[in-house]
Design goal:
The complex is a heterodimer of chains A (about 100) and B (about 210). Chain A is built from four helices and no strands. The two termini of chain A are about 30 Å apart. Chain A has about 100 residues and is mostly helical. The model of chain A has no long low-confidence stretch (mean pLDDT about 90). Chain A is elongated. In chain A, about 75% of the residues lie in helices and about 0% in strands. Chain B is an all-alpha fold and about 210 residues long. Chain B has two domains: about 1-160, no CATH class; about 165-210, no CATH class. Chain B is about 65% helix and about 0% strand. Chain B has helices at about 1-20, 25-30, 35-45, 50-65, 65-75, 80-90, 95-100, 105-135, 145-155, 165-180, 190. Chain B is globular. The two termini of chain B are about 25 Å apart. The chains are: A mainly alpha (about 100), B mainly alpha (about 210). At the A-B interface, helix 1, helix 2, helix 3 and helix 4 of A face helix 1, helix 2, helix 3, helix 4 and helix 5 of B.
Chain lengths: ~100, ~210
Amino acid sequence: MPVTAVLILAAGTFAIRIAGPLLRDRVTLPDKVRDLISASATVLLFALVAVSALTNGKSFGGWALAAGVAVGGLAAWRKLPFVAVIVLAAATTAGLRLLGLA
Amino acid sequence: MALGAAVTGASFGAISVGTGMPWWMPVLMSLLIFAGGSQFMAVGIVAAGGSPAAAVVAGLVLNARHLPFGLAIGDVLGRSPLARVVGSHLLIDESTAFAMAQKDPARARAAYWACGVALFFSWNTGVLLGALAGQAIGDPMTFGLDAAFPAAMLALTLPALKDAATRNAALTGAAIALVATPFLPAGMPVLLALFGLLVFKKKEEPCPSPQS
């Protein structure tokens, strides 16, 4: 991750944030646009989850990886604490690899 | 809630360092960007071999949701230029929700600033500690850290997936991204997932029913 990319993302994010308070008197967003913006955040995050859980960037990423993320997802769904989600996911994948599963 | 932010931050710091970043990189990101979802997103894309440009674009689309937040709370920050500049940096999902929950403007302002400042410190402290601890962890593959990353993001996304329209769009988008993955450079398939929004249709609800 180059520092330039971090700076651009930071500057862009700040511009988005301060635009609201500054443009408040002049701009109103239709509900539809608002819903679309909020959905796009979820769509992007979930797509990255799918790609990084199931692939290595090119082809299938292996059962150990997929199973680990699935266990983590199950833990999150059962409302386990965030740390538990992460530790369970990592431990499942590491354990399966230790057993020889790719 | 501040504790939760610290824990999430620590995970972000540790996992980022696990992908091969120097310890100060996640710390710098957290101080300057201060938006957890986009930080996870950017690191995830770059770790998967995607271009930094794709990471920046995805992060910015993710943070676009702060625009309606800012329009909604507006004067809660205070009207002086300094209050607006500093206050805007603290504009996150949580501080917005806290401010919106208050009817009285003075209390809304107090809630916004208290929440924003508390989360800024706990998030950044968590990231720093996590990044330092992450250096002690060896090869991320042996420890299953590559599974920790998507699991963390899944946990962050899960509440929003309860909404049927959002869920349909997310599932469609994920399918598009998966199909595109073998053919496109890393990072691009995730951006392509935005086409999943074509199936996004919010149900009109004239008045929310009490039993739902």
